Amino acid sequence: MSSTEQPTRVEYVTDPAAAMSWLASADRFGEYVMYEQPGVWVFAADPLGSVELDAGELRTAWGERTTARAWTGSPAATVDAALASLPLDGRNAYGWIGFEFCAYSLGATHYLNPLTSLAHLMIPRIEVRIDASGVRISGATPAETCDIHDLIAASQGSELPSAHPVDVRPDSTGYQDRVAGAVEEIRSGSYQKVILSRKVALPFAVDVPATYRLGRANNTPARSFLLRLGGLEAAGFSPELVASVDDDRVVTTEPLAGTRAFGLGADADRAARVDLLADPKEIVEHAISVQTSFAEIAEVAVPGTTAVSDFMAVRERGSVQHLASTVRGELAADRTAWDALEVLFPSVTASGIPKRAGVDSVFRNDHDERGLYSGAVVCVSPTGALEATLVLRAIYQTGEGAWLRAGAGIVGQSRPEREFEETCEKLGSVAPYVVKA
């Protein structure tokens, strides 16, 4: 226990999502990042310091002091060094990296402007951790600790919020035409696969913490998150890890590729699963994604340690089911967790194959910046461990409005109408559960 950690008041929390939503909605703790791992929920709030990386500037803050400077080289190495320069004193860091973070390693920086946000991490003063052992609170004053316990207690058994479902079928982005154009490029040999996405703007302001709670009650994510950081609010139900590096230096990624609807009833779900496992297009899409992930981990792993497990398992993620595999390797002694993240980012299942050509196609054909969509929410341990979860099945909001976004993997066998339907199926993980502000 750190010097700032309050003794645990053991509470059995039956609904951690409600507790996290209430802490976020209370608006007493400044900016925050909430992150769910299997069996563990963390609410990290009231930043002591931060690292913000734009295409044109690095800003590092601690307390009242902020420094800003130009930067060059690798964004991953730049963020890693910036975090190391802060007096973390054993604290974790939490935040996000945007899709455009990949432009430097994949030769696409000419698509960026100097204000493009690449990453925003913060070091919290307060951490609230809920797991099977109860509630642990670090960094809070005694009065704040009492408030936190009271909020958690009040949240348990409270009614779920009411939804304002969103119609996701209207499309102002010309999605099917863009897919048809990408299929032509693929068939001409330009690349093998690209993930093209479409944005669905919402005509009203959103209660993001309430949307998180209702959405989490109706989703089965690998990880989930809720954040308010640097003018951005977001909540999501991540289907897969981009990368994790644990304290034993094991690097893991979980490529998901191949999709069918889920939640339509036992018979329909079973039929969709059988169809998914037999569809040549989906099998090819998944196999080339696993091959790419294997090669990427091998770049940073001890030779001979990279391996695939659970190949082509079917995993249920809210309104969809996916083909999934796990790829692991042992991180080489001369490599860091940020090196592993840089080589695996963006997820192969959210960019394309080969990645350089696929990412170029994304920048050309998705038109506007993706930002947090298909980026990652990141947790960084003072021990050097790191976890980055893929941001999909999410809702986003800034002062300019709220939106959803989803994409589909395009290969040579793709049909534009089917890929559009896949985006609708994926949007179905969030759109029915949006709560109006």
TrEMBL record:
It comes from Nocardia caishijiensis. InterPro entries: ADC_synthase, Anth_synth_I-like, Chorismate_C, Salicylate_synthase. Signal peptide: none annotated. Residues 173-426 form the Chorismate-utilising enzyme C-terminal domain. Keywords: Lyase, Magnesium, Metal-binding. It comes from the Bacteria. Its cofactor is Mg(2+). This is Salicylate synthase. The keyword Metal-binding applies.
